[in-house]
Every structure is written in structure tokens, then in C-alpha cells.
């Protein structure tokens, strides 16, 4: 699913000797205990580590089987945390049921100024259950950034230390008290550095977050 990313990352971490400074996360996305175990073993090999910080069940694929395996791996010290993910709001009924019935450490969902469905059920439940939240698609897949690209940044952006729309959109997401981390995708090192900057300085409270949503056309 992610091409050569595990192998590339494993080589980079090993060559630079920074394993103690990075948080390694990957996913299992196949069916069956044997197939899932084989896929996770391959991830360990490619990442050149004997312990992965976070293993997530991708899109809830055969989650009952894999969560059982992950519990065993966690007890053995082969993973630190268990996670579940889904990328569509239509799966939130099942995602909510898993969060209520299982002990997991992380949940990953879409969340942005234009995709706020997670606010209604998943984020409050994660906070209640003490589950960390990873957010993907904070830019709505990039369409939102393209639409905003030719607009001037509003004064609120400068007040929050933002120098780009991307940083302001990330501030909106990170500012939610239930959100632990955001994972914006980019192949541009300059964009990556800018994204990191969004996690620094002030974060918006709920009132400021609503202003950001209104300024960007979110609901």
C-alpha cells in the first residue's frame, strides 16, 4: 500500500542511528491471523527494528483477528501501542463500537475544517476513553489548499504565528483538545518544515478555531 516507504525509512533510521528519537508507526491491512502476522513481521524486517511504536489495523480490516494478535505482541514488547483507523465517516458507527468495546491506544481519522464529522462522536469518545488521536487529510486531500492559495492570509494567521494557509489549517486541527498528532502528507521538504512549524507557538482555542473554519469556508 505504501510502496517502499517502510524500507526507505528503515534504512534512514539505521544509517543515522536515530531509532531512539523517532516514533515508528505502520499498519496491518490484510485478512487472517497468519497473513496479518506475516505482514507485521515483514514490517519489522523492513523497518530494521525489533519493536514498532504503533501498529494500526487499517480501515478496520479483520480488526477482531488483528487486535487479538496485537494484544499478544504488546505483551511481548514487540509493539508499544495498538491502533485502529478509518478514512470515511460512513464507518464511524463501527469505529465507535470498537472504541467502546476494545482497549486500544490510538485511533486515526480524517479531520479538517471541511471534514468535521469526527467532532461529533469519535473525538469526544476518544477523549473519554483516553485514546490518542491521529488525524489524516488535514487539508482535505489538498483541494482546500489549492482553493486558498491565491487568498491573502487573514490577521488571525499572523496572531497565531502562521506564515501559510497550510499552517493555519493545521493549527485548526491541532487546536482540538482531543487531537494528539496530525500527519499531513507531502513530498516537499520545504512544506514539511512549514508543517512542523504549525505545532509551535500558540494554538487556537475553540472560538479562534471557529473563526478559522469560517474564514476558510468550513462549517
SSE ordering: HEHEHEHEHEHHHEHH
Apparent shape: globular
Q: Enumerate the spans where pLDDT stays under 50 for 5 or more consecutive residues.
A: none
The number of strands is 6
Explain what this protein looks like in three dimensions.
The protein is α/β, with parallel strands linked by helices and 219 residues long. The protein contains 10 helices and 6 strands, in the order H-E-H-E-H-E-H-E-H-E-H-H-H-E-H-H. The model has no long low-confidence stretch (mean pLDDT 93).
Concise summary:
The chain is of the alpha/beta class. The chain has helices at residues 5-16, 33-47, 63-76, 92-101, 122-129, 143-148, 155-159, 165-174, 189-197, 206-215; strands at residues 25-28, 52-57, 79-85, 106-110, 132-136, 181-182.
Notable features of this structure?
219 residues; alpha/beta; 6-stranded parallel sheet; 10 helices; 6 strands; 13% strand
What is the topological layout?
Blueprint: H1 5-16, E1 25-28, H2 33-47, E2 52-57, H3 63-76, E3 79-85, H4 92-101, E4 106-110, H5 122-129, E5 132-136, H6 143-148, H7 155-159, H8 165-174, E6 181-182, H9 189-197, H10 206-215
Parallel strand pairs: 1-2, 2-3, 3-4, 4-5, 5-6
Helix pairs in contact: 1-2, 4-5, 8-10
Amino acid at each position: 500500500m505504501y510502496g517502499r516507504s517502510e524500507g526507505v525509512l528503515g534504512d534512514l533510521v539505521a544509517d543515522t542511528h536515530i531509532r531512539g528519537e523517532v516514533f515508528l508507526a505502520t499498519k496491518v491491512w490484510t485478512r487472517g491471523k497468519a497473513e496479518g502476522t506475516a505482514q507485521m513481521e515483514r514490517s519489522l524486517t523492513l523497518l530494521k527494528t525489533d519493536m514498532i511504536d504503533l501498529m494500526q489495523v487499517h480501515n478496520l480490516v479483520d480488526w477482531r483477528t488483528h487486535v487479538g494478535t496485537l494484544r499478544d505482541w504488546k505483551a511481548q514488547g514487540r509493539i508499544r501501542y495498538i491502533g485502529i483507523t478509518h478514512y470515511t465517516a460512513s464507518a464511524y458507527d463501527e469505529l465507535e463500537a470498537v472504541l467502546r468495546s476494545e482497549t486500544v491506544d490510538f485511533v486515526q481519522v480524517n479531520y479538517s475544517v471541511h471534514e468535521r464529522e469526527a467532532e461529533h462522536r469519535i473525538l469526544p469518545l476518544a477523549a473519554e476513553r483516553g485514546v490518542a488521536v491521529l488525524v489524516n487529510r488535514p487539508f482535505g486531500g489538498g483541494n482546500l489548499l489549492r482553493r486558498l492559495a491565491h487568498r491573502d492570509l487573514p490577521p488571525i494567521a499572523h496572531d497565531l504565528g502562521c506564515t501559510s494557509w497550510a499552517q493555519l489549517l493545521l493549527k485548526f486541527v491541532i487546536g482540538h483538545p482531543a487531537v494528539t498528532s496530525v500527519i499531513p502528507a507531502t513530498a516537499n521538504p520545504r512544506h514539511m518544515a512549514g508543517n512542523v512549524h504549525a505545532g509551535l507557538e500558540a494554538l487556537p482555542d475553540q472560538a479562534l478555531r471557529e473563526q478559522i473554519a469560517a474564514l476558510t469556508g468550513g462549517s
